[in-house]
UniProtKB/TrEMBL annotation:
Family: Belongs to the enoyl-CoA hydratase/isomerase family.
Keyword Isomerase among UniProt keywords: yes
Xref: Pfam families: ECH_1
Species of provenance: Roseibium aggregatum
EC number: 5.3.3.18
CDD domains: crotonase-like
GO molecular function terms attached to this record: isomerase activity
Single GO biological process annotation from the record: phenylacetate catabolic process
Name under which the protein is recorded: 1,2-epoxyphenylacetyl-CoA isomerase
Keywords: Isomerase
Broad class of enzyme this protein falls into: isomerase
Length: 259
């Protein structure tokens, strides 16, 4: 359900249920979590790139797993979130390496919000982001209600969530929902280049940067200045900092090891 390939310090992950537009079932959740755990633990992996197979990125929860037409009780969705989606979003946000998402086609429901939970999101020009939840009587999950207003403001967040209207990649980029929209044919090359470039970066510095920017969302400037001081002290003790300054002075490109 998830293809994985390690190359140039980067773990390339592809959601692979194309017949169902890569909708999430339990097996895909477990596979994705397992690969992200590998990315967390394996120091030779210094960036992750997530994309989808076929014409979609991910259509959210697989609704054929949620068929209630037999008249059975609706399963407790709180349990689904607590055991599957929430740990996934937490894992992406806590991963001390850049997670790049290449949104190759439609990203709907939890599929959209898992994409947005990644650190840098590129999307094919033809891709669409759909907060599909309202169409089936649900609320945005997988961090959507937290992330959307922070990224694009309450007005746009509410309208997207309440209407379920598709948002094109170019508009998403111009609103600041994602990093950028790129021509469909360039998406994987551009995302791959970015991922391998980040994998060759100063991994500790990047991890601290991710942490700082994420924690700023609910921190005062005063506290954040303190946090920057502490993180900079830590970054300043890495070999990569020493190498970065040395390379600058020697007018050559830096060779970072991630330590
Ligand atoms: C699908 C799906 C799908 C199964 C396309 N499931 N088969 C969390 C906790 C627990 C429960 C509930 O949910 C959540 C969070 C959520 O993610 S809620 C939101 C769930 N997702 C949706 O509501 C999106 C449903 N899909 C769509 O609206 C459309 O398929 C989109 C707009 C994504 C794409 O439209 P099209 O390009 O027109 O493709 P299609 O609709 O023809 O889909 C192609 C096939 O994929 C089709 O199967 P078929 O056998 O007819 O070829 C769809 O049934 C299947 N598929 N999404 N989520």
């Amino acid at each position: 359900t998830v293809l994985a390939e390690q190359r140039d310090g980067c773990l390339f992950l592809t959601l692979n249920r194309p017949d169902r537009l890569n909708a999430f079932n339990e097996a895909m959740h477990h596979a994705l979590r397992k690969h992200l755990t590998t990315a967390t633990e394996d120091s030779s992996i210094r960036a992750v790139l997530l994309t989808g197979a076929g014409r979609a990125f991910c259509a959210g929860q697989d609704l054929s797993d949620r068929d209630m037409r037999g008249g059975g009780e609706a399963p407790d969705l709180g349990v689904t979130l607590e055991t599957l989606y929430n740990p996934l979003v937490r894992q992406i946000r806590a991963l001390r390496k850049p997670v790049i998402c290449a949104v190759n086609g439609v990203a709907a429901g939890a599929g959209a919000n898992v994409a947005l939970a990644c650190d840098i999101v590129l999307a094919a020009q033809s891709a669409r982001f759909i907060q599909a939840f309202s169409k089936i009587g649900l609320v945005p999950d997988s961090g959507g209600t937290w992330l959307l207003p922070r990224l694009i403001g309450e007005a746009r967040a509410k309208a997207l969530a309440m209407t379920g209207e598709p948002l094109g990649a170019e508009t998403a980029a111009s609103w600041g929902l994602i990093w950028k929209a790129v021509p469909d044919t360039d998406l994987m090359t551009e995302a791959g280049t970015l991922a391998t470039q980040l994998a060759a970066g100063a991994t500790t510095g990047l991890a601290l940067t991710k942490e700082l920017i994420q924690s700023a969302a609910d921190q005062s400037l005063d506290r954040q200045l303190d946090a920057e001081r502490d993180s900079q002290r830590q970054a300043g003790r890495t070999n990569d900092y020493r190498e970065g300054v040395t390379a600058f002075l020697e007018k050559r490109s830096a060779r970072f090891t991630g330590a």
